Amino acid sequence: MKSDVEELMPRLLPVDCGEGTEDVDLSGPPRNPQEYLRQVQLEASLCPDVVVAQIDPKKLKKTQTVNASVAGCLAAPVGFCPSLSWQQHQVSNFSDVRQSISKNRTHWNNHTLDDNVQMPKLTDEEGWKRFCLGEKTYLGSSSSILTEADQEPALDYSKVGFPPLLSIVSRFNQSMVLMLLDILISWFEEREFVPQLGRWLYALLACLEKPLLPEAHSSIRQLARRCAHLRSTMNSQEDEDLPALNLLICLVARYFEQVDLADQPE
């Protein structure tokens, strides 16, 4: 007898099931295509029409909260907001950088890294912080300004952080780019801005492909809000970190089209 489902949904492949399905063995592999299709039909007929999931309420958390912030950026203090022409110029330059990276990715990916470049394992978050920011910044034992010893030819990048060289970032796939962005933005949430961080954030944004994944939207918006917060605490327009913070906000808002976060010139 045909089931109700079969009455409503005619078979795409006619199968001769014989007199019955008693001789169909579900425990063994099918011996031919005809027997395979008969097994599939028999298994489908044995499935209940309605299935109810057995959920143990005790295993569920008492409170399940999803935090999804759509808040905008804090407005720039008077005199701290970049002009619209400046923002447009930065977006144009950034677009050129992205095109150059895309064009030369294969070349730099095949470029041999120096012996002193030892990238951490994929899951080593603390290792990546040390790699990008340097031991001094990671441990908070020194300011981000390089000393005379740091500026010597034999520069120890493990102390001051490896720069985001094309030979390094060209090896990152999109999941790696997103992971590293999340690591550095999370670090930035609780600390002040440093030049090493700015260089890496710019490089990773330049490698971030469009259209953005949902998690990428969340990360870069978090970055723009953090930059805007730090900017709102500045006392001088001559602060050396102001251009970098304005640039990151500009790229997130203007290039990646998070327009509600964009600075509006006075």
Give the helices and strands, then pairings.
Layout: H1 4-8, H2 33-46, H3 84-109, H4 125-133, H5 135-139, H6 157-160, H7 166-169, H8 174-189, H9 195-207, H10 214-232, H11 242-255
Helix pairs in contact: 3-11, 8-9, 8-10, 9-11, 10-11
In short:
Belongs to the gemin-2 family. The SMN complex catalyzes the assembly of small nuclear ribonucleoproteins (snRNPs), the building blocks of the spliceosome, and thereby plays an important role in the splicing of cellular pre-mRNAs. This protein has helices spanning 4-8, 33-46, 84-109, 125-133, 135-139, 157-160, 166-169, 174-189, 195-207, 214-232, 242-255.
What would you say this structure looks like, in words?
Helix content is 48%, strand content 0%. It is mainly α and 266 residues long. It has a domain at 84-110 and 118-139 and 157-261: Methane Monooxygenase Hydroxylase, Chain G, domain 1. The model is unreliable at 142-153 (pLDDT under 50). It is elongated, with a radius of gyration of 28 Å. The termini are far apart. The chain is built from 11 helices and no strands.
